[in-house]
Amino acid sequence: MTKLDAKSLISGLLTGIAIGSITLLLTTPQSGRSTRNLIKKKKNTWFSSRKSELKLPYPIEGPETLDGMTRKVQKTLKRYKQEVKPEMVKIEQQAQEIADAIALLNKQIRKSDN
User: Fold this and answer.
1) Is 25 among the domain residues?
2) Which band of pLDDT confidence, cut at 50, 70 and 90, is reported for residue 43?
3) DSSP-assigned letters across all residues of the chain
4) Does residue 98 form part of some domain?
5) How many independent structural domains does the chain possess?
6) pTM recorded for the entire structure
7) Is residue 20 part of a domain?
8) What is the pLDDT of residues 74-108, one digit of tens each?
9) For residue 66, what pLDDT is reported?
């Protein structure tokens, strides 16, 4: 992109933002406060009507959701550790057996070379 193209792009964007902002301010049907209140009411109505449809395992509210998710993750991690630990012990034993077998083979190879 050349300097002229970048300059044209930036000036075009700034002009568009300015025109859009002025148009929005002049055509807004109500004040900002009443618009925000309307959005809050619609949001609460929408969430409460859809809560059963969404079938979320946790409430939509932030702290309650975080607490519920934390408990579930802790429970899952605990169960995972209980299931995996015996397998890890077996794998470590097998790895040690393999390492011992390799060491024994190395000794035998060195003896046969001498």
Assistant:
1) no
2) confident
3) --HHHHHHHHHHHHHHHHHHHHHHHHH-SS-HHHHHHHHHHHHHHHHHHHHHHHT-SS-SSHHHHHHHHHHHHHHHHHHHHHHHHHHHHHHHHHHHHHHHHHHHHHHHHHHHH-
4) yes
5) 1
6) 0.34
7) no
8) 998 888 888 888 888 889 999 999 999 999 999 98
9) 75
